[in-house]
Amino acid sequence: MLFADPTVLPGVLNTSQTLSMPRRFTSPEEINEGQQTHPSARILRQFPGYQKTRHGPQAAARIGLARIRARCPHLDAWIKALEGL
Fold first, then answer.
1. pLDDT tens-digit readout, 45-58
2. Are 69 and 76 in contact (CB under 8 A)?
3. 28-50 b/e with 16+ CB inside 10 Å = b?
4. Residue 39 pLDDT > 90, yes or no?
5. For the whole model, what pTM was predicted?
6. Are 68 and 1 in contact (CB under 8 A)?
7. How many CA atoms lie within 13 A of 53 on its CB side?
8. Residue pair 2/39 in contact by the 8 Å Cβ criterion
């Protein structure tokens, strides 16, 4: 979800380094290949001080659910299904 807006996490971490999403992915939901390449592993390689349970929620809140849903269609569909219950 943090790759929905890669400009936000660096602000949470107080760094000017940018979060890079590989160009071969058209959606943040596609970044989930394996133990060394899943989203949080990619983030940790770029930002060794990243703490998923601390910084992740802060960044997600700043990105906002509307932006995350717009960039993550599978998540959006799942949320719509839950809303329809």
1. 999 999 999 999 99
2. yes
3. bbebeeeeeeebeebbeeebeeb
4. no
5. 0.84
6. yes
7. 0
8. yes
